[in-house]
Write a structure and sequence with these properties.
With 422 residues, the protein is mainly beta. It has a domain at 23-103 and 335-422. 8% of the residues lie in helices and 38% in strands. The chain has helices at 2-18, 161-167, 249-256, and strands at residues 27-28, 32-33, 40-43, 58-64, 77-83, 89-96, 108-109, 116-123, 126-133, 139-142, 148-149, 155-158, 191-196, 202-207, 224-232, 238-246, 263-270, 277-278, 289-291, 297-303, 310-316, 324-325, 336-339, 345-349, 357-364, 369-377, 394-395, 401-406, 413-420. The strands form 7 sheets. Strands 1, 2, 27, 28 and 29 form a 5-stranded antiparallel β-sheet that branches. A 4-stranded antiparallel β-sheet has the order 3-4-5-6, with no helix packed on it. The longest helix has 17 residues, at 2-18.
Amino acid sequence: MNRIFLICAGLLALLASCKKSPAPFPEVGEPYAITQGPEDHLLANYFGINAWSPDGRYVCVLGVGFTGRLPEENDKATVALVDLADNMRYIPIGSTTAWNFQEAAMFHWLPWEDGLCAFNDCRDGRFVTVLLNWKSGEERILPRPISAVDASGEWAISLNYARLRVCRPDYGYAGEGQDPLLDEVWPEDDGLWLVNLKTGEEKLLLSVADARERMPRITSEDGLAYFCHTIISPDAGKVFFLARTVQDFKAQLSERGYVYNWDTVSMTVNTDGTDLRRCFMDGWKGSHFNWNPDSETLVVTARWNGNQTWSHVIFKVGEEDKVHQLAPGIMDWDGHCIFSPNGKFISSEGYWNKDGNRSWVLLRLEDEALISLGSFHVPESYKEQYSRCDLHARWRPDGSQMAFNSVHEGSRQVYLRDVKWK
């Protein structure tokens, strides 16, 4: 009996020793600025979106001349590149009046032509996409602004940024570049537009009215429904987006000049317009999000079980009933969550605490262990709601760097961190 026990114990010990150890955390270096004053600078697109040119040499940024308020119709920002191979040389390539402090000008690199990029602007009184080859100077204009672009650079999602200016001013654009359709609660001819950036072909992928039965009810006489915050899966098969409804939006505008109260559901839809799905049950909402490289898995900050605490949750599209809460009690906050390029880690950074400091962590998915990536102070002058400076981190596609915005050294600038994988 003792011999059998010893043999079994030995086998168990052997199996335990053969168990693969979790992937080691990468070594994330100290931040260093790649822009400098006197102007403020921010990355030229939203969190999680690639900022590096296809060859990795240039980083897209926006130069802005003020802070402390919303951009207005004639406030111009400089679209520029930073040359990482030439002593951080600053290269202005254009300008735009269709931008904000959160999503900048939604700049995207288009890898199907050397030097080609896309960003939003207002031309001839209309919000548009500018396709610019910054090396040759050639440009082409498409009649809708972009909200997301797929990995190939061919397909984009477009939104109504004038409607956003009313419903979420910090994500919309000032001016009359689009019709906000404020008399249409559930527009049938507006919503998510699918645009081919090569041909200019466009079609309405999903109208706001199409999603009505899956969105929060509107019971007031002057409600409004809208879409925002889109991201295309890496395989270009699906779009994640937030669908929101507002009660009494005219009363809110009259009281404060902006909408301050809304309800949210998180949704996905195929890029052919089929299989519209809600990600969560009522009350879970949704705030920040990112696709895993597998194009099936999403991380979203949501209200776990409909409670008042934000959590980081992960699930596969089609298996929403199996949603999993990441590191409960530790990751219970609303963060800008992004998968590492290898899909094994999640970086997340949130809002400032009572001391004015932002925390940034890296979570290992295999065992939900995490490490701190630092704390970054926010001066009072950068806490104004609409011009606030979120870190809005993102990975270089090869995983060798991270980029983010910060004000911890006194002005809004763009920073890089070098990453070494073990």
